[in-house]
Write a structure and sequence with these properties.
A hairpin with a 6-residue loop joins β1 and β2. The chain is built from 4 helices and 2 strands, in the order αββααα. It has a single domain, classed as Cytochrome C3 (Alpha-Beta Complex). The N terminus is likely disordered. With 112 residues, the chain is mainly α. It starts with a helix and ends with a helix. A two-stranded antiparallel sheet has the order 1-2. It binds heme C (3 copies). The site of one heme C has 20 residues, from α2 and α3.
Amino acid sequence: MVSSVIACITGAQEYGGGPIVFIKPVRAVIFEHRFHLGKKLNCLSCHPDLFAKKAGEVEEKEDFTMASFNRGKYCGKCHDGITAFSVNTKCNWCHIGVQGHKRLEEYELEIE
Ligand code: HEC
Ligand code: HEC
Ligand code: HEC
């Protein structure tokens, strides 16, 4: 039991990054690999078809919007109320806002 938990955490941190925070078009939306691995998901669930392995790429796309998610693109491929909670609910699970982003940056400064 313990070893499978460790394997999962290692997988999530393999790329060496913490949370990814999107600031375009709105500040700020959080994405964390650690909640997206294990269970039925693996790297191939998202890379390379859905997202590049490079933070900051996808938010440059004009259609990285709620309208696209509602049509099943990007985050909406899974956040459709079946595979994962829908983009029409729980706005603040993803949208941490300006204050949430500030707190995250302060926290990261402290642990460095
Ligand atoms: C549920 C979708 C999802 C899964 C599963 C996933 N990723 Fe990602 N990954 C993303 C997103 C979204 C980004 C940010 C892309 C962007 O900003 O354009 C990202 C970015 C990255 C980056 C770039 C990080 C940086 O700081 O530039 C790496 C490396 C990466 N992922 C590796 C992995 C590996 C390795 C796995 C499997 C262990 C994995 N990802 C699984 C969605 C996922
Ligand atoms: C390949 C499928 C997939 C994609 C793509 C995906 N997610 Fe998820 N996400 C999940 C699953 C599964 C969960 C687990 C929660 C659930 O079962 O409802 C989850 C959980 C989350 C959570 C909740 C974490 C917590 O606090 O428990 C957030 C926030 C989130 N996703 C944001 C995003 C964002 C932002 C994107 C797009 C950049 C994205 N996800 C893309 C499948 C996906
Ligand atoms: C699964 C994660 C997720 C959920 C849930 C979610 N959003 Fe979003 N939202 C995003 C992402 C990712 C972006 C694009 C990145 C950015 O703007 O920083 C975005 C962008 C937006 C934007 C700006 C772009 C546009 O479409 O106009 C608005 C407004 C927005 N969301 C409103 C909402 C509202 C209201 C809810 C709840 C009903 C919600 N979102 C729920 C992830 C989510």
